């Protein structure tokens, strides 16, 4: 009897199953980074990963499910937040992590491919949104700690502050084509800090934490 199809992103297999998952996701990432979303094909990925085609179809079923699993895995493997003891230091660390990711030859190209696909594929868009929710939640405690230290207004929307750090960097990558270097990362962090301190991110403006 065929095994039930797992819910993507909820199963954490071990042993051979884990190795198969890792090999297929690595192959998918390679194709995304070098050839783009349009070249993803489950049968081809099975061949590249050296696993059975039936195994790949049974586990993921569709390219969209596989990309969702890839993004879930990337979110889990991403570096944890850095806590420096100051909001300036924490957000600068966040910005520089985003900058390094976007300029990495493999990961930068991979993200561009996924973002491009997300504009016309709702399943890929949902997976991308989930990835960023995980990463934002990872860094939100830095802002909450700054509120507790009295560095920011008490009603600051921590999620909006973290979004404000990376937004200018993605704009450079996807729209303007301007350099995404450490200087740009530091400016983005400094601008987010200044805006947060001035009260530009009140939770009441967007419904605050209850709306996330």
From TrEMBL:
Record-annotated DNA-binding residue ranges: 41-60
HTH tetR-type domain mapped to chain residues: 18-78
Keywords attached to this entry: DNA-binding, Transcription, Transcription regulation
Species: Virgisporangium aurantiacum
Protein name: Transcriptional regulator
Organism placement in taxonomy: Bacteria, Bacillati, Actinomycetota, Actinomycetes, Micromonosporales
InterPro entries the record matches: Homeodomain-like_sf, HTH-type_TetR-like_transc_reg, HTH_TetR, Tet_transcr_reg_TetR-rel_C_sf, TetR_C
Single GO MF descriptor: DNA-binding transcription factor activity
């Amino acid at each position: 009897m065929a095994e039930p199809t797992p819910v993507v992103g909820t199963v954490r297999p071990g042993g051979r199953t884990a190795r198969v998952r890792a090999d297929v996701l690595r192959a998918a990432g390679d194709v995304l980074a070098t050839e783009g979303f349009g070249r993803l094909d489950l049968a081809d990925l099975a061949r590249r990963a050296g696993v059975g085609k039936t195994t790949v179809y049974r586990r993921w079923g569709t390219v969209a499910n596989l990309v969702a699993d890839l993004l879930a895995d990337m979110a889990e493997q991403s570096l944890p937040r850095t806590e420096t003891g100051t909001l300036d230091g924490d957000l600068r660390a966040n910005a520089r992590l985003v900058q390094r990711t976007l300029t990495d030859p493999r990961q930068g190209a991979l993200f561009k491919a996924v973002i491009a696909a997300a504009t016309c594929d709702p399943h890929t868009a949902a997976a991308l949104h989930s990835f960023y929710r995980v990463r934002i939640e990872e860094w939100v405690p830095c802002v909450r700690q700054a509120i507790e230290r009295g560095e920011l207004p008490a009603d600051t929307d921590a999620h909006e502050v973290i979004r404000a750090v990376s937004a200018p960097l993605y704009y450079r990558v996807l729209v303007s084509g301007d350099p995404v270097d450490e200087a740009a990362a530091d400016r983005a962090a400094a601008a987010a800090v200044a805006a947060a301190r001035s009260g530009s991110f009140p939770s009441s403006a967007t419904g605050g934490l209850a709306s996330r």
